[in-house]
Write a structure and sequence with these properties.
- The chain is mainly alpha-helical.
- It contains two helices and two strands; from the N terminus they run H-H-E-E.
- It has one domain (about 1-55).
- It has a two-stranded antiparallel sheet with strand order 1-2.
- This is Cold-shock protein.
């Protein structure tokens, strides 16, 4: 009787591991689909003459 219960627990643990792995893969795919791209221009930040961080490049003088 103990052997069948041990086998059952092994199967349950394996199911839990598989479900966790599938959930992780699903979250990874959702993150990839919802990402904004990450191109260099969108990540750039500039510092103006007053030391503030701005998203527009400084004007050439």
């Amino acid at each position: 009787m103990a052997k069948s219960q041990a086998t059952f627990m092994k199967k349950q643990l394996e199911k839990n591991r598989q479900k966790k792995k599938e959930d992780k893969e699903q979250r990874k795919l959702e993150r990839q689909q919802n990402s904004s791209g990450g191109d260099l221009e969108s990540m750039m930040a500039y510092v103006n003459e007053w030391g503030e961080i701005v998203s527009t490049p400084p004007e050439k003088k």
